[in-house]
Task: inverse folding
């Protein structure tokens, strides 16, 4: 985006520009006043600035048209025909056009920054709802980012306060637990905490070895306890087996004796024969006697004989079983002895392998297994004692562990509480600072805006006491802005309730200007579309003066108006217009569209008439007379000169010129600013008005003869008198007025009347008596 | 051009440093987040806590 001065604005087929229209801007003039009666296309120019700057056309808003882009192009044209091009003094261009229904700028970053205020919007800020008013200024005071961070800080403080409360409660609970421990321990020392700290130094694992040794001792002892009973049972088993063997042997003997003395041997022979015959089932002779007699059926007969000896066989089997049972019983007894010896050895190892504390009773070892039962009986009370000693040690360990845990928790929470005690005041202070800075920041900006509004307002309504404007955020609501003013001593009164419509319009304009000037005004083109409509006459001049002054802050200011007096006051140089370019629009037609009229101030026109070759005496006299009447009207009012009363102020040169007379005429002089001296002080040259008035008095008749009506007497007069009249009037205006700074109307010096910037100083201040 | 939040955050940070509540180094780290509304509770706590600890160990 270029920020150079504006060169020209070219509008094609936007709204009223049915044919391409170009508005040229004069170099080094930052204010352009576009004058035109209603229907001349002023708003089209404003629309063009909005189109190129903001990509929209706001003048059609709120007219019940719905989507207004259907009406942006001129009648008979298409949206794609619309274009607006802004050219700057560095020859940079920004062209806006409609592409696919969207306003596109080329280059895209070349859009000028534009702020527009239209007549219909002038009360927007003053009469809006507080929320809407806030929206207008939010871009200057919207600190929602900081507010969000502030909220997290507030939440953090809340959480930490809660955590601190919990830490305090835990510390109290820990203190109570320690007190109970202390009381249980009999309140040794001075207080529970000192005691707990000493106790906590003891190693909870110090008794672990005692406990382990006691556990092993009890286990070793318990393994010995059953041996007497088991040994007795095993010995009984041996004895029983012996008895059973004797009985079986006796029974077997008796059974053999009942059969034959050698029955036993015979049975053995028969069994061997049966085994042989089983292998050789068809022998040809007896294997024992080698006789073949009765060899037939030998095997069957042997089987029959063995069957007769079966009772003897059973008894012999029982004997064998009894013998085996005795062997096993003896082995059992032997094994029990070995195990008992082994466990007794283990018990001895446990007993002698540890340095037993004094409170543990250690028994003497039994000399042999024979006295084990008696020994166990003597020491039967010891396992219970050992168990109690083990339990005592485990309880002590548990106590120390619990005490340590309580102390650790206590210490942690005391530390946490202390840390929070140190941290929270700091965080609270940070929050105070954030809140304070935020309020101050928003307050300062609003105060600055309000002060600026008041200052601008005072330029238009000086001394009315309505300049104390206040803007305040509503603390009870978010994004709500209240506007107030001092009215009849009541501070903060809503201006909507008390101000006249004209005053409210001025206030709305002041608010808009103050806001626009707050945000990079040097880059901003300010467009004011017909904002003077309702301002009452006494305030218009000051409003215009104010606009001149404020416009200088901006990159450029365009003001459209249909206020006729402004045009005429500019023509007469009654307003300072050094920075002002005045353009006038002719009546709009659908063939020609917007058209500019070149408007020249009358003094400039007189100068041109005098410069013509040959000059026209009649035209010169006519224009000069017109100007002289204006100058004399100004001076006679300024010095309160006596002139005949006439209806409708229809004074002529004949009435006014003689009124500037006597001491007044003799003393009238003008100091003209020529520059500054070496010290920077302004330097002036002095010009007396007396000879001009004297000469004008001499030749004033020329005006009536040449400039007003056809008179044959004019044939008798010299053209040079007519031209001299024009030259004297021009000289008077050159001395008295400054087309850039206006007429000398300011008496603030108390010595003279001055133009703006004191480029002219008119003496005397008052008519000499 | 700075946003109002950025301008305000600069003022806040400057004041916090002036009052010795945070160090300039910590301030540099938190200022952008402060302006953007992205400063979490821990982000507030850490620099202040560091300041408190520094104060406790002169």
Result:
């Amino acid at each position: 985006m270029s920020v150079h001065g504006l060169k020209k604005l070219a509008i094609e087929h936007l709204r009223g520009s049915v044919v391409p229209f170009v508005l040229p801007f004069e170099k080094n003039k930052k204010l352009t006043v576009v004058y035109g009666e209603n229907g001349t296309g002023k708003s089209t120019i404003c629309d063009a600035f909005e189109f190129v700057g903001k990509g929209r056309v706001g003048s059609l808003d709120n007219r019940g048209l719905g989507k207004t882009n259907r009406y942006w192009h001129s009648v008979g044209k298409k949206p794609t025909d619309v274009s607006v091009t802004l050219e700057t003094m560095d020859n940079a261009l920004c062209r806006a056009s409609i592409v696919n229904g969207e306003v596109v700028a080329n280059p895209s970053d070349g859009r000028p920054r534009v702020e527009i205020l239209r007549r219909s919007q002038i009360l927007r800020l003053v009469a809006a709802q507080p929320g809407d008013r806030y929206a207008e200024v939010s871009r200057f005071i919207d600190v929602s980012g900081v507010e969000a961070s502030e909220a997290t800080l507030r939440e953090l403080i809340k959480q930490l306060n809660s955590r601190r409360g919990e830490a305090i409660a835990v510390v109290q609970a820990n203190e109570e637990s320690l007190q109970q421990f202390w009381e249980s321990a009999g309140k040794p020392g001075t207080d529970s905490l000192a005691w707990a700290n000493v106790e906590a130094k003891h190693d909870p694992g110090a008794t672990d070895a005692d406990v382990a040794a006691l556990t092993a001792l009890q286990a070793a002892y318990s393994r010995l306890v059953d041996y007497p009973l088991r040994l007795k049972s095993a010995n009984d088993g041996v004895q029983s087996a012996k008895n059973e063997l004797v009985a079986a042997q006796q029974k077997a003997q008796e059974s053999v004796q009942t059969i034959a003395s050698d029955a036993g041997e015979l049975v053995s022979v028969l069994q061997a024969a049966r085994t042989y015959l089983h292998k050789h089932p068809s022998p040809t002779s007896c294997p024992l006697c080698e006789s073949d007699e009765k060899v037939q059926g030998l095997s069957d007969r042997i089987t029959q004989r063995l069957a007769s000896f079966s009772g003897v066989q059973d008894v012999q089997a029982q004997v064998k079983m009894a013998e085996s049972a005795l062997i096993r019983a003896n082995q059992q007894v032997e094994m029990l002895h070995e195990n008992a010896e082994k466990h007794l050895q283990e018990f001895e190892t446990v007993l002698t392998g540890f340095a037993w504390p004094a409170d543990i009773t250690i028994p003497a070892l039994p000399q042999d297994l024979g006295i084990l039962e008696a020994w166990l009986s003597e020491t039967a009370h010891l396992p219970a004692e050992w168990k109690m000693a083990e339990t005592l040690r485990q309880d002590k360990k548990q106590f120390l562990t619990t005490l340590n845990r309580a102390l650790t928790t206590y210490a942690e929470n005391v530390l946490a509480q202390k840390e929070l005690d140190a941290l929270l005041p700091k965080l609270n202070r940070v929050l105070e600072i954030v809140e304070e800075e935020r309020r101050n920041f928003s307050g300062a900006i609003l105060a600055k805006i309000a002060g600026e509004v008041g200052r601008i307002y005072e330029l238009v309504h000086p001394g009315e006491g309505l300049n104390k404007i206040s803007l305040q955020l509503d603390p009870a609501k978010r994004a709500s802005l209240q506007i107030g003013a001092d009215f009849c001593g009541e501070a903060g009164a809503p201006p909507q309730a008390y101000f006249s419509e004209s005053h409210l319009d001025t206030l709305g304009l002041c608010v808009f200007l103050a806001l626009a000037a707050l945000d990079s005004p040097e880059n901003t083109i300010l467009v004011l579309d017909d904002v003077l409509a309702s301002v009452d006459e006494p305030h218009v001049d000051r409003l215009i003066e104010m606009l001149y002054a404020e416009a200088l802050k901006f990159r450029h200011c365009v003001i459209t108006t249909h206020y006729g007096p402004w045009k005429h006051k500019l023509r007469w140089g009654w307003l300072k217009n050094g920075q002002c370019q005045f353009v006038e629009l002719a009546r709009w037609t659908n063939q020609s569209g917007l058209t500019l009229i070149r408007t020249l101030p009358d003094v400039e026109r007189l100068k041109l008439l005098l410069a013509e070759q040959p000059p026209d005496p009649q035209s010169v006299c006519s224009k000069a007379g017109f100007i002289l009447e204006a100058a004399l009207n100004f001076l006679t009012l300024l010095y309160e000169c006596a002139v005949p009363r006439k209806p409708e102020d229809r004074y002529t040169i004949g009435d006014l010129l003689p009124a500037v007379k006597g001491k007044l005429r003799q003393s009238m002089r003008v100091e003209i600013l020529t520059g500054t001296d070496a010290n920077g002080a302004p330097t002036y040259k002095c010009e007396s008005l007396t000879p001009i008035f004297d000469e004008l008095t001499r030749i004033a008749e020329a005006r009536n003869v040449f400039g007003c009506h056809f008179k044959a007497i004019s044939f008798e007069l010299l053209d040079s008198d007519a031209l001299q009249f024009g030259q004297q009037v021009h000289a008077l205006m050159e001395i008295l007025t400054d087309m850039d700074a206006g007429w000398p109307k300011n008496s603030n010096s108390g010595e003279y009347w001055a133009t703006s910037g004191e480029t002219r100083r008119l003496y005397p201040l008052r008519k000499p008596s | 051009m700075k946003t109002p939040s950025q301008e305000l955050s600069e003022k806040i940070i400057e004041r916090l440093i002036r009052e010795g509540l945070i160090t300039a180094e910590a301030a540099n780290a938190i200022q952008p987040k402060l302006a953007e509304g992205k400063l979490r509770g821990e982000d507030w706590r850490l620099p202040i806590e560091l300041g408190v600890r520094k104060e406790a160990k002169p």
